[in-house]
Amino acid sequence: MQAVGQSTSRRGWLTAVPLGIGGAAGIYWLLGKSFGETNYDPAQVITMIQFDDAGKRLGPLAAHKVFRTDAKWRDKLSAQQFFSTRRGTTDTPFTGTYYQLHDAGLYRCICCATALFSSQSKFDSSTGWPAFWLPLAAENITTKEDRSLPEPRTEVLCRLCDAHLGHVFDDGPPPTGLRYCINESALRFVAA
C-alpha cells in the first residue's frame, strides 16, 4: 500500500503540470499582445491635418495611432517598403523615380496614406532621393535623434504609424534651409 504523501504528490503533479503549462502559455500570450507586437499604445489618439488628394487642407483630424504586427506589415508592403519603413533602412540613391519626378501632387505615407509632402516644396538635391524643404503639415510628421552612425542625424517619421521616412538636414534651400531627404519606398505619389 502506498503512503498518503506519495499519492498526493503524484495527484498534485498531474494537476500542477497542465495548470503550469496553461499559465505559462497565458502569460506568453498576454506579453505578446501587450509588449512583443507593439512599441506604443494602440489606443493613443493624436491630432493631425487631413488633406484631400488635390492637396486641399481639410483641417484637423483626431486619429488613433496605426498598429500592425510585423506579419501584417509584411502582408501590406513590399520587402523594400517593409525594411525601409519598419526597420529604418535607406533606399539606394538614384534607383527610384520620385527623386526626378516634377509632376504636381502629394506624397503620402506608403503605410497609412497620411499626407506628408507636396510637390510644391520638392526640390532637386542632387542626392538621388526625393527632397523637400517643408512637410505638408508639421503635425503629420515627427522627428527624433538617430545615433546609428557616428555623426548624429535627425530621423523623420510618420506621426500616425511611426514609419521611418528618412532624415532632415540643415543644408536645404530657402525659405527654411531644410532638406527632408526621404526614401522613395516610404512614399506613394498621388498626382494632382
Number of strands: 11
How many strands, which pairing sense, and closed or not: the largest β-sheet?
6 strands, antiparallel
- Indicate the mean pLDDT: 84
Q: Under CATH, the topology is which?
A: Metal Binding Protein, Guanine Nucleotide Exchange Factor, Chain A
Helix content: 25-40%
**Sheet/helix structural class:** alpha+beta
In CATH, what is the homologous superfamily? Peptide methionine sulfoxide reductase
**CATH architecture level-2 label:** Beta Complex
- State the shape: globular
Unreliable residue runs = 1-39
Ends: how far apart?
Answer: 89 Å
What fraction strand?
A: 25-35%
Number of domains: 1
Order of helices and strands: HEEHHEEEEEEEEE
Number of helices: 3
Please list the strands of the largest sheet in the order they lie side by side.
Answer: 5-6-10-9-8-7
CATH class: Mainly Beta
Give a written overview of the molecule.
This protein has 192 residues and is an alpha+beta fold. The protein has one domain (45-191): Peptide methionine sulfoxide reductase (Metal Binding Protein, Guanine Nucleotide Exchange Factor, Chain A, Beta Complex). The chain is 26% helix and 29% strand. The chain has 3 helices and 11 strands. The strands form 3 sheets. It has a 6-stranded antiparallel β-sheet with strand order 5-6-10-9-8-7. A 3-stranded antiparallel β-sheet has the order 4-3-11, with no helix packed on it. The chain has a two-stranded antiparallel ribbon with strand order 1-2. It is globular.
